Amino acid sequence: MTIFHLDFMRYALVAAVMVGLTAPAVGTFIVQRRLALLGDGIGHVALTGVALGFLTGTAPVATAVVVAALGAVAIEMVRARGKTSGDVALALLFYGGLAGGVMIIYLTPGESTASLNSYLFGAITSVDSTDLWVIAGLAVAVLALLAVFGRELFVLCQDEEVARASGLPVRFLGLLIAVIASVTVVVAMRAVGLLLVSALMVVPVATSQQLTRSFRTTMALSMVFGVLATVGGLTSSFYLDVPSGATIVLLALAGFAVALGIGRFVRRSRTGESTA
Amino acid sequence: MSTAFDMTAGQVAIDGRKILRGIDLTVDEGEVVAVLGANGSGKSTLVRALLGVQPLSGGATLLYGRPPARFREWWRIGYVPQRLSVGGGVPATVREVVASGRIARQRRGRFTSSADRQAVAAALEEVGLSGRAGDPVSSLSGGQQQRVLIARALAGEPDAFVLDEPTAGVDAGSQRMLADTLRGLVERGRTVVLVAHELGPLEPLISRAVVLNQGCKVHDGAPPTAVGTHALPGHDHVHPHEPAPAESPVPSWVLAQEKA
């Protein structure tokens, strides 16, 4: 008997593939925009959303999307105003989101902070067919938006002033990437948990950029690494009976370490060739 | 002849500090205008305000007769910023960066056209980087990165070029290339506004110079004829990869005006 004979593992694997594809795709733009920690900030804010779901008796994923998107818009507006530096704005949301989540869940009858565990650290094997449709819908929407706006987002994330001098709708695009990131965070929440979600947006990109020369291949390769990490991590966590979220992230980090070594070696031999 | 840039009483204040103190500046189509001045005189802010990239705190500016917020023909403008932003360490090839200069001419959701590809190839050729098109921009020297930025603007085939210190920290070869490129643009009747610390090999191409001092316009007219040793033939003002030169970057005749 293999993992494919188990319904919950089949659902989990499909979810893993979708998360592995979307998180690094969005992450490439986020890293290029120098907002690598944006996903962490949104993840913390989303926790308040999850807790609100418990409090109001609605689906935590739905409230998490709404609150995370509002948080992302707030981060972007603070950043664009330039009054507070971007990292301080992010930090404020980190603390507010986490504290808000814990407080709200404490105030919810019959719930305790233990209820948040599966959202904090991920529970991909609890994905059912309804969840899968929601995740698939969100993932397709994210990838479609990136395909349509990719060219403009590339200019925006490279140099915002040039984007403005090219007549691009800079404010709209900034909000768009923030909202896309928050949807991605909620999609990936089920796989690796809110505390580790940003790892899937950043680590595969960091891994890929050790080996690539162009933006396009960096994004494509990071999506490959993302899927390898989520599917590989999920499968091995099943056989080793260890937590899936942590396994996925540790696998991604191991991939980064290997790519770092290969990248150094390749670059060294390249410079060796050109000087020879 | 119509007007490309038109600023009236333009003021810019950043964090309460006045950077531009009421600038009137009109640039007609086909003019080649150099904006000169010492570090911190407001040169870069002026050109960024002309484009609407830097919002004004007072006064008004027009791009081809329209305020920046209502301007729609952005493909007519090619902006060359001071330096290439490396984008958070995510690699991008020379071709990718140059191709992004087509953005104002491209429709959302459409694939890259053959006109796009031709313009990018021509721009790369013009700055002599065709052979490096597939290399990551981070592997290029400062002067080569400056050429990438110019090629990005060229790829958009704009009517007007706005260059922010294109010669700063650039090696002699890239300076000559820049002068050649600029000559080509002038011959094709393009409008050019460029910020410079000193003109060097660009001097013969300039039709008009605007000199700023502490956010005020202190000269607007014929390019200054250099005095002293700088005027001697053979002194070509090239200071490759050097920090700010020891001598005053403001021409001595401007300093004389200030004292008056």
Distance between the termini of chain B: 36 Å
Low-confidence stretches of chain B: 227-249, 255-260
Helix content of chain B: 25-40%
Biggest interface pair, residues each? A-B, 30 and 33 residues
CATH topology of chain B, by name, is Rossmann fold
Element pattern of chain A in H and E: HHHHHHHHHHH
CATH architecture of chain B: 3-Layer(aba) Sandwich
Spatial shape of chain B: globular
CATH homologous superfamily descriptor of chain B: P-loop containing nucleotide triphosphate hydrolases
Poorly predicted regions of chain A: none
Individual helix count of chain B: 6
Number of strands of chain A: 0
InterPro entries (chain A): ABC_BtuC-like, ABC_TroCD
Membrane topology (chain A): Multi-pass membrane protein
Family (chain A): Belongs to the ABC-3 integral membrane protein family.
Keywords (chain A): Membrane, Transmembrane, Transmembrane helix, Transport
Write up what this structure looks like:
Chain A: The chain crosses the membrane at residues 12-31, 51-75, 87-107, 132-150, 162-181, 187-207, 219-240, 246-266. Chain A: One of its GO terms (biological process) is response to zinc ion. Chain A: It comes from Herbidospora solisilvae. Chain A: It is a multi-pass membrane protein. Chain A: Belongs to the ABC-3 integral membrane protein family. The complex is a heterodimer of chains A (276) and B (260). The radius of gyration of chain A is 19 Å and the shape is globular. Chain A has a domain at 3-195: ABC transporter involved in vitamin B12 uptake, BtuC (Orthogonal Bundle). The longest helix of chain A has 32 residues, at 244-275. Chain A is built from 11 helices and no strands. The termini of chain A are far apart. Chain A has 276 residues and is mainly α. Chain B has a single domain, classed as P-loop containing nucleotide triphosphate hydrolases (Rossmann fold, 3-Layer(aba) Sandwich). In chain B, helix 3 (114-126) packs antiparallel against helix 4 (142-155) and helix 4 (142-155) packs parallel to helix 5 (172-187). In chain B, the strands form 2 sheets. A 6-stranded mixed beta sheet of chain B has the order 5-6-7-3-8-9, with helices on both faces. Chain B has a 3-stranded antiparallel beta sheet with strand order 2-1-4, covered by helices on one side. Chain B has helices at residues 43-50, 94-99, 114-126, 142-155, 172-187, 252-259, and strands at residues 3-14, 17-28, 32-37, 58-63, 77-80, 160-164, 191-196, 208-213, 216-221. With 260 residues, chain B is α/β, with parallel strands linked by helices. The longest helix of chain B is centred in the last third of the chain and has 16 residues, at 172-187. Chain B contains 6 helices and 9 strands.
